[in-house]
Structure formats: C-alpha cells, structure tokens
Amino acid sequence: MPRLPTILALLFAFAPVVGAEGDTAEAKKQKTDKAKQALNKAFKGRVIKIKKKTVTLYYDFEDEDQLKDFEDIRPPRLLDLGTPSFAIRGGRLFIDGSTSVRHRMEGSGRVHAHFFLKAGQQKNIGTVFTEPVISDFFTVLNLFDKRFYGNGGLLLAACGLHEDEGANEDMSLVNWRDIVKGDVRKQVKVGQDVEIEVAKDGWTEYCRVGKFESKGSSKGKGKDMKAYQFGIWCDHSSMSIDDLTITLTLTDEFLDLNDLKAEIDIVWEEIPEDGPLKGMKNVPPRLLKQVNAYAAKETRDAVPLVDALDRSGLDKKVRVAVCKVLTERGDPRVVPLVIDGLYSEDRLSRQYAINVIKSVTGKSWGLSAGGSEKARRTAIQKLNQHLNENRRRYFE
Fold first, then answer.
1. Which of 33, 156, 192, 302 has its CA 20 to 30 A from that of 238?
2. Are residues 175 and 278 in the same domain?
3. In a domain, 1, yes or no
C-alpha cells in the first residue's frame, strides 16, 4: 500500500464519556485519561475506542514496538522448516515461511478484525480464532495443514476444541468452521492488497474478502468457546498485512492479569476535532493524517486518498469526504490515479472516480457508474487521449 512520506501530528476531540451520574466534565476527562493510560501500558497498538470492557486497537505497523502485542508461536512440526520471518518492514507486518502469530488480547463475546492482506508466495495463509491455549492453536494449525496444504487456500476460521482424546487427529472432534464458503482465491491476487474482515459473536461467524461475503453458525458442532484470541498463520508462503484493527471484549482474567479491571469502565471513542473528516467515527488514524495533510496542501501525494475511494469497508461518509477533498483541491495529477477506480466492482467506487474526473477536467467523457463495458471502454479511450495530449498538465 502506498505510503505518505511525512506523518503529521493531529489533535483529537473525544466523544462524551459515560461515567457515574453527576460526574463533572473534568472528572469524566480524568477517568478517560486514566483508562487510556492503563490500556496504553498494556498494549502497543493505538487505543481508538473503549466501551466498558470492549476495546478497539489499531496497528499501522510504523513502530517496531507493535510486535510486542503478538506472540510468535509455531507448532512443533514447523520447527525444522527453517527460520521464519515475523517482522515490521516499511510500515507493514511481514510473515514469511512457515509460522503463526497470535495477538495477546484475550476476550469473549464479540471479536472483530479488519485489515488489508497482500499475498506474496501463496500456498496456505489465513486467520483463525482459537481459545487461549497454545496446544489448541497448534492442533488447529495441524488439522488445517492436513486438509488444505498446497491448494493455495485462504482459510478464515473459528475453532474450539473438544477435550476428547484424539482431537488433534480427527477433525470431527473439533468445533471448527471455515467461515469462507465458496472460492475466494480469485479475490486474493499476489502482490495486491485485499480487504479482509472476520468476526465471531457467540456461535455466529462472519467474513469478508474483498467483495466476497460469507456468514454462518457453528452451533451444534462442538463445545462453545469460552474465550478467543486472534491469530494469523502462514505455511510455505509469504504475506504482509496493514491497517489492522481488532475489537474484543476482554475477559475478567485478562483484565486482572494486566491490572485493567478497575480502569476501563467508560465509553470513549477517538474522533477528529477538525479537518475534512471532523466528527466522523471509525476513521483509520493513518488515513486521517493523510487526508488532513493533503487538504492542507502539505503533500502532493494523493495515492492514499485514491486508495480510500475504493475501500468498501470504510464508512460511506468517510469516502464521500475523501472524494470531496480530491475534487476541492483539483490537482490535475489525480486524474490518472483514479482511472483504475472506473474498473472497480463496487458501484460507489466507480462513481467517486467519475466525480473526481468530471470535477478536475470539466467533462464526464460519457462515463457512467452503471454503464456498459463498451461505453466505459469508449469513454476511457477518449479520456486517455486527452491525458496524452496534455501530459504536462496531468503528469508533471
């Protein structure tokens, strides 16, 4: 994913904090600050939302310390397959070879993860929710390997193990569910970011890979999971992830272990105080910085904003605001960048690209978000001819 060269400092305003009835604004602020300090001590990811015991962490992988929130664990069968790589490079988390990593956070109730994955050499890669027992994690990976090895598969699963003897050999003894139904391999193209979302709430599981969605229930397939941890695995493959957000309701045991139980009885969310995305929720912190920097003309790099136009997982209000920033600045060099968006499978993404092109060039070129392939091809040919005839304006 293209990166912004310069990261700017931002100020944030905070949503109201729910505290004891009669709390003054200052008392609520102190309670919020105390909770944030406690969580920042427990985790290296950025805390962007707190709702009682439910915490949302964000990882841009710009800081090596963020690795401390992940455990590098491998089943015994992988120990003889060489030294895997688990590291932050160039603002992404890279996992190469045959290894598995798991986030430290332990929770129950609803767990949700959202991130962008780029496959390198792909044989088997995936994510998994398991209970916080290392032997369970190992068993799950061994079972997945036996069933899926070598098929170039992307496996997103939720698992809970029976205590019965033999669970590490017999998949029928495991409460597991591959939460992808259908062939998603065409959604995962080597070298290209694909947006992934996985979630589990009780027996119900959900996943999204690009435009592909799947959901179901594992009820009746085995014992319930009492607690979850989010893991990522890579076998004879290479991959990297970015912009990872994890939401989890922390267990009392985890809260006690990390001295957090008395500290997070609040409701708070990081919300931008000013700028084009003012007051909007669920904005990735790095995108917020990039949008503000571009709007203030502190950078000419529009690539991160153009990428955001095609992120269907972003709130529609955020995408509309990003499109507005691009059109208001009106830099002609953005036009060649948005052309790829005309081919997006998402109708809104196509419309945003058309809006930018029309605003900057002053013409729609016959483009329509719902038009036929023939009409789009003809329109793009005309647009490309215009760009080539005015290369200094659009490319320098």
1. 302
2. no
3. no
Phi, psi of 157 (to 5 degrees): -140, 160
Q: Which pLDDT tens digit goes with each residue over 326-362?
A: 999 999 999 999 999 999 988 999 999 999 999 999 9
In a shared domain, residues 113 and 231: yes
Own/partner contacts of 376-381, CB < 8 Å, gap of 24 or more, are 376/342, 380/339, 380/342
Count of domains observed in the chain: 2
Encoded tokens for 341: 């968006």
Read off the tokens for 249.
């309701």
pTM for this prediction: 0.81
In this structure, the chain runs to a length of: 396
Q: Please report the sign of the dihedral spanned by the C-alpha atoms of residue 252, residue 256, residue 260, residue 264.
A: positive
Q: What is the rounded distance in angstroms from the CA atom of residue 391 to the CA atom of residue 198?
A: 43
pLDDT (tens digit, 9 = 90+) per residue, 98-110?
Answer: 777 889 999 888 8
Q: Which amino acid is at 358?
A: K
- Shared-domain flag, residues 147 and 248: yes
